Amino acid sequence: MNYMSRPAVDYEKPKINDIIERVCKHYQIPISQLYIKRNFREIVEARSVVMYLLHRYLGMTSTEVARIFDKNHATVLHNCNKVEGFMDIDKNYKELVNKFK
């Protein structure tokens, strides 16, 4: 068999639930906490990272991501910009976010 007859390796992007599970595991919060209305720091940060990854990395629209969290699209865009701002400033934060991809 030569390289022309071998199928190409298709690397799949992680699924939505995989990203959510990994982020929640890192922040040590139950998945259900992402969907509540409370604004504890750990929950807000985890939710922001998940929104960023779903919107920027998986290519979901801000409206699709907003529906998952019962928010509006502007909230998703705000969180994405906030995460990108932190990533620009803090190299460790950027490595953390990129590890969830």
Helix content: 55-70%
CATH architecture: Orthogonal Bundle
Residue-averaged pLDDT, rounded? 89
- Derived structural class: mainly alpha
* Uncertain segments: none
Biggest beta sheet summary: none
- What is the CATH homology-level superfamily? DnaA protein, C-terminal DNA-binding domain
User: How much β-strand is present in the residues?
Assistant: under 5%
Number of helices: 5
Which shape, going by the Cα principal axes?
globular
Number of domains: 1
DSSP summary, beta strand count: 0
What is the CATH topology descriptor? Chromosomal Replication Initiator Protein Dnaa, Chain: A
- Helix-strand sequence: HHHHH
N-end to C-end Cα span: 33 Å
Structural features, described:
The chain is mainly α and about 100 residues long. The model has no long low-confidence stretch (mean pLDDT about 90).
Fold blueprint:
Layout: H1 16-27, H2 41-57, H3 62-69, H4 73-89, H5 91-99
Helix pairs in contact: 1-2, 2-4, 3-4, 4-5
